[in-house]
Write a structure and sequence with these properties.
By secondary structure, this protein is mainly alpha-helical. It has one domain: Cytochrome Bc1 Complex, Chain D, domain 2 (Orthogonal Bundle), CATH 1.10.760. It has five helices and no strands. Helix 2 crosses helix 5. The relative contact order is 0.16.
């Protein structure tokens, strides 16, 4: 009986953890595509900014902030940067953040 309980608990826990990881995983490959379409005009290819006052992501400017802070900046806009709420989903914005973290 105890063995059956432990087995069921282990399987249930594994399924729950597996589903949670998939739901929150960010895709830097998709983020690169979105970045090229929506962000590179101001932030430059590879994150090297080509507009004064724009963060240079290749030098990791602003990337020391938590993902949720960066998500808020993308969603709501900041300074001259427009808001992307309604244009991109939160998952797509997290994909972009994941891509930015790969830049050097």
């Amino acid at each position: 009986m105890l063995r059956r309980y432990l087995s069921t608990t282990l399987i249930t826990t594994a399924l729950l953890l597996g589903n949670t990881a998939v739901a929150y995983a960010a895709d830097p490959g998709n983020g690169a595509k979105i970045y090229a379409t929506h962000c590179s005009g101001c932030h430059g290819d590879g994150g090297v900014s080509n507009m004064p006052g724009t963060p240079d992501f290749s030098r990791r400017e602003r990337l020391f902030q938590p993902d949720m802070v960066l998500l808020g900046s993308i969603r709501d806009g900041t300074g001259v940067m427009p808001a992307y709420k309604g244009l991109l989903s939160d998952q797509e914005m997290l994909d972009v953040i994941s891509y930015l973290r790969t830049l050097r």
